[in-house]
Specification:
Blueprint: E1 2-6, H1 17-26, E2 31-34, H2 43-53, E3 57-68, E4 71-78, H3 85-111, H4 118-125, H5 132-141, H6 148-156, E5 169-170, H7 171-180, E6 184-187, H8 197-205, E7 210-215, H9 220-233, E8 236-240, H10 261-268
Parallel strand pairs: 1-2, 2-3, 3-5, 6-7, 7-8
Antiparallel strand pairs: 3-4, 4-6
Helix pairs in contact: 1-2, 4-5, 5-6
């Protein structure tokens, strides 16, 4: 079972890297990509746990926050070098930007009368990389909202009163950054982000390698649509559950959508931006 989209506490996942790997192993996953948002911090622990368990391989990954023509998108990097200095510098910068963004959002919430603090969000996160789901879980713990979904819907979603935008790389630069680190660049959840064929075509011109057609949140018609686009643009169609843990996304389970070994091999052959 090949699972190419999962998160840990290094970004906005519920489980530490070691626990994520153990849960994936128990679920029958044989290849797991750890793709935390804008950070590589969870990879050493995940790799070490996989070595000790045996029977599960880790694909080092990252999910980069980026944009094309003003549209926010996410680009997954797979097979990246965990110690690549350029990618590590990017991750360090983004960690600081995420903290500044979180401070802005907390200040907006406090101005609205909600008693949330940055320290509380940090305690929920359990790490340095602060993400919106951490803020959502803090709001749940304070009884302000019932669940993470309500927090996004009412307060911190893109149209919410406490939203603050995040600094994002242009997509062209994100793809180049992943390629120079030896990886492949895949557009994540295009249906969720409502990315059209023209935009995907522009990304393909910049060297995009894959398209996450089989994302957990894509309905059958979307899966067919993006599989067709992938064929037309010579992109490798990929699959991923986008697993964060039950407390964050209760309807996403490890391995709920799977990539075939043939497509995995096709993606791996494109490492570093190579084309067959």
């Amino acid at each position: 079972m090949i699972e190419l989209h999962a998160h840990t506490t290094a970004s906005d996942g519920q489980y530490a890297p070691s626990e994520l790997v153990r849960r994936a192993h128990a679920a029958g996953v044989t290849t797991l990509a750890v793709t935390d948002h804008d950070t590589l911090a969870g990879l050493p622990e995940a790799l070490e746990t996989a070595r000790s368990l045996g029977g599960i391989a880790i694909v080092p990954g990252i999910e980069i926050s980026t944009e094309i023509n003003g549209t926010d998108i996410h680009v997954l990097g797979h097979f990246v070098a965990p110690d690549d200095p350029v990618l590590l510098r990017y991750a360090e910068h983004q960690g600081g930007e995420r903290r500044r963004r979180m401070k802005r959002m907390v200040e907006k919430l406090r101005a609205l009368g909600y008693p949330v603090t940055l320290r509380h969000v940090e305690e929920v996160a359990g790490g340095e990389n602060l993400c919106r789901p951490h803020l959502a879980r803090a709001l749940v713990s304070l009884g302000i909202v019932r669940d993470v979904q309500e927090a996004f819907r009412k307060l911190i979603g893109d149209d919410g009163p406490a939203f603050s935008p995040q600094e994002r790389l242009p997509a062209k630069e994100a793809i180049a950054l992943i390629h120079q680190a030896g990886g492949t660049a895949t557009l994540a959840h295009p249906g969720v982000d409502r990315i059209d064929r023209y935009q995907i075509g522009e990304l393909a011109k910049e060297g995009l390698d894959g398209l996450e057609a089989l994302h957990a949140d894509h309905v059958p018609s979307q899966r067919e649509k993006y599989l067709k686009i992938a064929r037309e643009l010579d992109l490798v169609p990929t699959a991923g559950s986008d697993f964060h843990g039950e407390a964050v996304a209760p309807d996403h389970t490890l391995g709920m959508v799977q990539l075939s070994p043939e497509q995995f091999d096709a993606l791996r052959e494109r490492r570093g931006g190579r084309r067959p």
